[in-house]
What does this fold into?
Amino acid sequence: MAKKKLNVGMIGYGFMGRAHSNAYLKVGKFFDLEYEPVMKAACARKQDKLHAFAQNWGWETTETDWRRLIDRQDIDVIDIGSPNNTHKEIAIAAAQAGKMVLCEKPLAMNVAEGIEMTEAIEKAGVANMVWFNYRRVPAITLAKQLIDEGRIGRVFHYRAKYLQDWTISPNVPQGGSTLWRLDIDVAGSGVTGDLLAHSIDTALWLIGGMDSVTATTETFIKERPLQDDPNVTKPVGIDDACAFLARFKNGAIGTFESTRYARGRKNQNTFEVNGEKGSLYFDLEDAHQLQYYNHDDDSHVHGWRTILVTDSDHPYMKHWWVPGCVIGYEHTFINALADFLKGIETGVPARPNFRDALETQYVCDAVLKSGKTGVWERAQA
Amino acid sequence: MAKKKLNVGMIGYGFMGRAHSNAYLKVGKFFDLEYEPVMKAACARKQDKLHAFAQNWGWETTETDWRRLIDRQDIDVIDIGSPNNTHKEIAIAAAQAGKMVLCEKPLAMNVAEGIEMTEAIEKAGVANMVWFNYRRVPAITLAKQLIDEGRIGRVFHYRAKYLQDWTISPNVPQGGSTLWRLDIDVAGSGVTGDLLAHSIDTALWLIGGMDSVTATTETFIKERPLQDDPNVTKPVGIDDACAFLARFKNGAIGTFESTRYARGRKNQNTFEVNGEKGSLYFDLEDAHQLQYYNHDDDSHVHGWRTILVTDSDHPYMKHWWVPGCVIGYEHTFINALADFLKGIETGVPARPNFRDALETQYVCDAVLKSGKTGVWERAQA
Amino acid sequence: MAKKKLNVGMIGYGFMGRAHSNAYLKVGKFFDLEYEPVMKAACARKQDKLHAFAQNWGWETTETDWRRLIDRQDIDVIDIGSPNNTHKEIAIAAAQAGKMVLCEKPLAMNVAEGIEMTEAIEKAGVANMVWFNYRRVPAITLAKQLIDEGRIGRVFHYRAKYLQDWTISPNVPQGGSTLWRLDIDVAGSGVTGDLLAHSIDTALWLIGGMDSVTATTETFIKERPLQDDPNVTKPVGIDDACAFLARFKNGAIGTFESTRYARGRKNQNTFEVNGEKGSLYFDLEDAHQLQYYNHDDDSHVHGWRTILVTDSDHPYMKHWWVPGCVIGYEHTFINALADFLKGIETGVPARPNFRDALETQYVCDAVLKSGKTGVWERAQA
Amino acid sequence: MAKKKLNVGMIGYGFMGRAHSNAYLKVGKFFDLEYEPVMKAACARKQDKLHAFAQNWGWETTETDWRRLIDRQDIDVIDIGSPNNTHKEIAIAAAQAGKMVLCEKPLAMNVAEGIEMTEAIEKAGVANMVWFNYRRVPAITLAKQLIDEGRIGRVFHYRAKYLQDWTISPNVPQGGSTLWRLDIDVAGSGVTGDLLAHSIDTALWLIGGMDSVTATTETFIKERPLQDDPNVTKPVGIDDACAFLARFKNGAIGTFESTRYARGRKNQNTFEVNGEKGSLYFDLEDAHQLQYYNHDDDSHVHGWRTILVTDSDHPYMKHWWVPGCVIGYEHTFINALADFLKGIETGVPARPNFRDALETQYVCDAVLKSGKTGVWERAQA
It folds into this structure.
């Protein structure tokens, strides 16, 4: 059966550019889909690097101005992998041009931008998805499935951490092409938008909406050199660390914490759900596992079960290898892309869409605000 | 060498009565100490049960009125294991009578009581200790040692949980002789005084004092039957769950959470310290282990090290068995008692004393207050 | 109810002397039993050390000749905790004197001795038990219970390891009062009798008898100084390490390995059972846990379950503390003693008795023989 | 820089066909190499399935007769991913045609075949590698590196397991296109060639050669239906399970076990090395981790370190993502292919070559022989 081709124009060639390119390259090899993404054009400002990148990955053409990319009639999908402060303008223009839009997370610099973007997308009626790729870790998808099966029951507690340690040294610079996440003007925030946004997206998906939050944020290293000009030092504007308490609409209590100063934690994105009937625990550093406690088990064999999420009846895994063979970080993007394409095919769009990602933005903004006001802030529209 | 005898009068024969009795029975068998505790008198109100208890454990005599116990000239040490709402009166009377005082945690129903007690104890100048027994888990003591050795460096983060799941059923009654911890009038608070007090004591010991806290508390089951009269139902006054954020005086950020609604967690008392040079992690459900990450290790062999805390050069362990042979819950009391007796012997008193426990009480009160006010509260004197 | 007293005469005051004394001291405090052991007499050759030991633990009297101990009319139970080469003579004499006999493992120096001992015991008809204390680790007892419940089904595989690392240094001496386990003349064998005997006892109990074995043994350090005369060096006669394959009567395949040269393993006594319906895994270094895989679970939640064996419906645990509170190494002896006393009370004797321990001896002898012959040896009577 | 192209002709489109195709597709995207593999021709007997496979993966042409493939002048490399009983003929023909040869493991049906193949390859002088892909799990490569750095010292023990559970049901058929591994005529052996060959290859690489082995093998399910004709049942000729003891040339003792009847173990390929100075432990089900015990650590912080093998200074990882982001099963093939191509580039050929794989074959044959003879068999040339 001939595939329907979707021409993709991707903006950004950094870390996410690689991850997305790999997804376009592989998705059709492992998933049987009606739509086939075509790596039509890669777009970035630096022509030299862009050219090498495009050649390596097999992008057919390049553009150095994202407006030109959007203007091209042969592009069906705009994929935004450039820094946070570019998302809004590109997404709105793409939507207005009738393109499908894929956007890296966090959706926007703040709620105000997010509302504009979401309204533009919905007005245009184009397919859209935000790359909260961790929803497509099979173990996290399985967690969602177990909750939907009613295995957890009334939820009492949710606790999430997202810990890294790569900015402890004061010598790590800020800004520039690879360290813009440390520059408040480009990133909008620090760990809140970069890491906690993942934790929040997962929580909202698994448990439902939040009512309000109270937070504390900290910037441990007060100034850092610039990546592009190491002799110049600038105050650090981002949050190095952030912790918050949440009240969910369903009555559950949440605790969230993120930092880049947790020595020894490389990418420890964890969550735990405690419900009346059972509990779940996940740690991204052991991404192939989901831990599950089932109160319905016979009493003397109660225990936390480590599910090795590699069987063919686990989410996504029948597309990959055989039981016991793990997939890696990059597969979350491939799985997400497969879902996006399947959504177009079936008419049941993949999530999270811009509207969903806006919900996460509301929480992020409330967290950052509470970090300043010291009181509980409303974490919803 | 003849031992110096210390005659002990212990109040309370419940769970803590057993744990303390076992400590008096065993401490001299495993530790070489100048002072020998003598199980002179057990005290409780119900004569029948008390008698059986005393006979089983070898308490020489019994008393049904703690005032009579304190009046006895043959008693050197008063050990308070009765419910929280009795601590103040007994401790003050015992101090005024010149007795040494051992008191179960939490020290008091609130800071006001704690101040009175501490002042009375210090005025009397009597030896005193509060049974925060977990300081004497060898792995926790080792954590303190590693911090004191400078292995962690500047501390960025501290996170603690104390999770249980035994009150999820609404059929669990409150009050009565074994469930007074669920009765606000007897316990003073719920998980805050019972469980978080342990977490706070450990944190203050390891990291130092807290500046302020913001908290949320919840009572999931709103009313429960009475243990002593199952046909009568009473509103639940205690906090079933409590989470708080803390700012430490040294600039570190703390997150704390406790609940009795974490399905599958039986006695999961954990902490993690993240510092510039290293990190530590502990979980009471694996009490024989301490996890340690050392940033000074060669880069390609960086990793979290699971220290099996059973070697003879680990705290307390040379008194027990051989490497690989674990000790249990009850040993924390024996180790604590050994320290108390050694403190008398050496003149360097064991800790935490009443003054230390009062610091914990300040935090508990601030947490409970913040749970009501919704703002950051001062967590110190 | 008045207890029936059983006067105990214990031989040996070393490591096992402490462990047994502690059991006699505590068993009645935690178990409600008809029989009460009385610490009547401790026996060893060195009067000075014996006296201090007896005083510390509360043994009423002492004897320096075990024959005199057996002759005493006031002794009901002889407990043999002295080195292996003394077991036979003492056990037979005690049996002939009509005493109950408790004997440390391994039962004997070899099968020939074991047969003599077992026949003497059975002829005398006295209560008897061999201290294979690990059967009374609650998690191991639970494993037995789960197998008996039919949860594992047809067994395909059994694998056991018992790894330590304390003899790697060639400076560790042999012989003497604390290192007789390294002296072939006193111990009879090395890791085979000391450690593998435990693994074999557990295997026979859980899975049933063995048919035959093939083994390899090694002595890595060929000579060692004497503990009692460090200037004298003697060849090492014991097996430092031993590995064997086994065929069980029920068709299962077994692998067993033991060593004192596994750097980093302190007391890692593990077993795994793989059956048609489920599997079990245990590690003594995490003695409070049993891992269980249940094939009957729903397919997408299959997983290894970590059972925290501290609940009141787990073996022995209702006698101790509360869920989440672990017991330690020493409690295995207390639990075993409780079973022995209960066996007398109920008329259903505790196991393993001498006859059971003789089965283990057959396997040990076959293993050591195969280590020399290089062929499969019969591992049963 | 223009790449030098290497035209690949791959035989087999099953599980390994996918894994290898993925490697050819991706290697150049992540590794900067002089040589670029070109997916020139895929070869298999069934034209229909082959065509679909080739189209999906981008193989330029197809062949249904491997002899025609070898005859093609435009093919530089023959990659053999077809069943074991085809390896010899193809490999020899390819070598004689001057092609480079990549061959799936096990090398051959037996040593006799392996010798012929190795001699043909060496006579032809062509580049060659056998796909023992697990050598390229970064954690295993790191293990090799740590041993080469002298961190383990004199080795006392090596123990390996390779456990699966997918053939427990008697309904699993044998033979056919996907289950030929259960057919003795096609596979040559059961778990020995399929799974233990991996364990042996790793052991020989890490520790060095074996002297002799003693083994036991078992076929639990005696007959199975045919995959291609379910009404026909045939005796099972393969070994379902195999355990063996080994003596290494360096004096170390080895234990090895493999089975497809270990309920709950999906792909548990483990090894542990115990040396005088340190120990290592690996489990393929947690492939991103290596555990390391360093005896040189300060005594009170001795512990098993879990190295998260995802940092840029760990083997292969700088080519992939960022610390904390794992790679999966398929990456072992990509890493291996990169090494093969780099070997051509540098003139230092990648290993294991045919000669290395022949060493593994010697051990496999000795193991299977000992399983029949019951005595120790020589496990080397």
In short: Chain A has a mean pLDDT of 97. The radius of gyration of chain A is 21 Å.
